Amino acid sequence: MAHYAVRESPPLRGEIPISTSKNAVLPIMCGALLTGEDVRIERVPELTDVKTLCALLASCGCSVKKEGDALVLNAGALQNPQDEEDVRKMRASYYVLGPVLAREGHVELSLPGGCAIGARPMDIHLSSLEQMGATIEIKNGYVHADIKGRLKGAHITFHTASVGATCNILMAATLAEGETVIENAAKEPEIGDLIDLLTAMGAKIEGRDSSKLTIQGVDKLHGAQHKVIADRIEAGSYAIAAAITNGRLELINAQASTLRTPIEILRAMGVSVEEGKDSLLIDAKGKTLTGQDIMTDYYPGFPTDLQAQFMALMTVSEGASLVTENIWENRFMHVPELMRMGANINVHGHASAIVRGVKRLSGAPVMATDLRASFALVLAGLAAEGETVVNRVYHLDRGYEKLDEKLRAVGADIERIKEAD
Ligand code: EPZ
Predict the structure, then answer these.
(1) Which pLDDT value is given to residue 76?
(2) Residue 54 among the catalytic residues
(3) Are 61 and 77 in contact (CB under 8 A)?
(4) Which atom of ligand 1 is nearest to 49's Cα?
(5) From the CA of 145, how far away is ligand 1's center (Å)?
(6) Phi and psi of 141, rounded to 5°?
(7) Which of 209, 253, 347, 419, by CA, is between 20 and 30 Å from 259?
(8) Which pLDDT score, from 0 to 100, does residue 224 have?
(9) pLDDT at residue 88 is higher than 80
């Protein structure tokens, strides 16, 4: 298994191109299952999560063609998913549920399990489909969902503004009979991107970027072309790479409007952030950074997917920072690893941690159990004395395209080391 060797690096300088968003492209690819015509998705990032989903879509009878960095998907011969391993491998596999049920009238899908960051229930997805007329049964680890005729429009109120459930029910509702209203829908930019694709396919959706979505079901959707938005979490992660090394990085394609809260926190810590039309200039040259409190929340609040990376920055910023995690019940797994590197962190319960800045971290062998926590350890490694070995790189491969290439190009000392199996 490969690992990253990260060594203390000089201030990073230069430009990093931000890839397209992992969390936008996954539901968008599943949106292609809603039509029998070609859906062409431009600028698809090379990530293992995308590869896994391609395999799952292929097992749903969807043809998957790669044309340069575009994917052309055609679900003319849609069927129930056959490849169980891919379902279990990735949580986002639940996105096939809504589209396959809406078109086929029946789905059997292995329930994706929980994961390191939390239990990750699916009650909102399932109860919403029931409200739309589906009969749902859970048997032997499978969801069995059936409808007679078409799904029916319904007025649904989510108890939590779930990103996944919003995407799933939105997709299902595009082909339902009549009007569906989703109250307390999630407002993440990735949902707006999915709405843009569905609208280009002929769906009738009102309320983009708001917590109330109204969908008028149509009989059929058609093919479309779509360009995926930039990855705000990747951009935020590299902004911290600039800050933690006292460097100066221009993040090309980054959209400031999707990163309002993290930008505010960076500025409060003492980092200069200049907003371009399609870029961000992060400058921490010669700056002494100070700790700030952060509290994760639904969009536009502070994103949980940047909590670990900001915590890494706080470990070497002056003073104390209180980090509160409100979305996932187990998202502090990076803490013991950062402490192995000399960080001073006290966790209280499962939702809050006090970080007291230290002068210096020191390199150590570390490993993380999720994608963002792994990136936090790479960041800490850039600022730590000596060498940090980050194990289990497959987490990083799921969501950061060309990570080592991008970092090396701006001066980071990072190497991917392949080990014999
Ligand atoms: C998406 O996960 C992202 N994944 C996650 O990013 C991200 O952390 C999360 O949204 C929150 O922003 C993808 O987009 C593929 P949720 P999702 O449903 O959709 C509760 C990363 O690192 N909930 O919005 O699975 C749930 O327990 C990943 O890229 C229910 O109670 O998250 C959680 O507390 C990690 N019942 C909250 O809602 C449900 O039926 C938010 O979950 C569904 C969710």
Answers:
(1) 96
(2) no
(3) yes
(4) 15
(5) 22
(6) 80, 5
(7) 347
(8) 98
(9) no
